[in-house]
Amino acid sequence: GDSVTQMEGPVTLSEEAFLTINCTYTATGYPSLFWYVQYPGEGLQLLLKATKADDKGSNKGFEATYRKETTSFHLEKGSVQVSDSAVYFCALTPGGGSQGNLIFGKGTKLSVKP
Amino acid sequence: EAGVTQFPSHSVIEKGQTVTLRCDPISGHDNLYWYRRVMGKEIKFLLHFVKESKQDESGMPNNRFLAERTGGTYSTLKVQPAELEDSGVYFCASSLGRRNTEAFFGQGTRLTVV
Hints:
The complex is a heterodimer.
Chain A: E1 3-6, E2 11-14, E3 19-21, E4 23-26, E5 32-38, E6 44-50, E7 56-59, E8 62-65, E9 75-77, E10 86-93, E11 103-104, E12 108-113
Parallel strand pairs in A: 2-12
Antiparallel strand pairs in A: 1-4, 3-9, 5-6, 5-10, 7-8, 8-9, 10-11, 10-12
Chain B: E1 5-7, E2 10-13, E3 19-24, E4 31-37, E5 43-50, E6 53-56, E7 65-68, E8 75-79, E9 88-95, E10 104-105, E11 109-113
Parallel strand pairs in B: 2-11
Antiparallel strand pairs in B: 1-3, 3-8, 4-5, 4-9, 5-6, 7-8, 9-10, 9-11
């Protein structure tokens, strides 16, 4: 069945460092891809998404490109801040499915130190 | 506008007891989803309501779990009797009735069964 694999955490970075969180997927058809973020004490929030191959999702300085050839959707940010400390989840919905029927990765905890 | 709200935020119960979790979706959202994250694992889909009807309950782990959405508004998820492996964070999400619309998540209910 469909699945998402993301890099294990925790990831600890210094402020202004470059961030990459790897995410690969297995899916039939043409899934939509998402990154969700959970800040401490809060619920999941959609960070960015891409619905077709070569699309780039971006928000708050984060970017991810839908790479069908490598089945990947890696999350990047050029300069992280302390406020980016959170748990990041990569997810997909099967092609044509509702955006609520999500398949998640295990999550990657990011800690950014001043 | 209020977001998705979940009650309680935390619950600690003994094995064999009953617990009921509640989710109030965003007003006007026909779709309501329940998810669960067991410690260290992926967030897993449990079920999907469209208004008061169960659209997909393929993720429900067993018959100790009962979800309802009377009147198509708020939803409850009852666990009876609770087992140790039911511990985790239970998330609720809602979205509008149209396809390809974003799902908004609540803060989750952390359930601990001792």
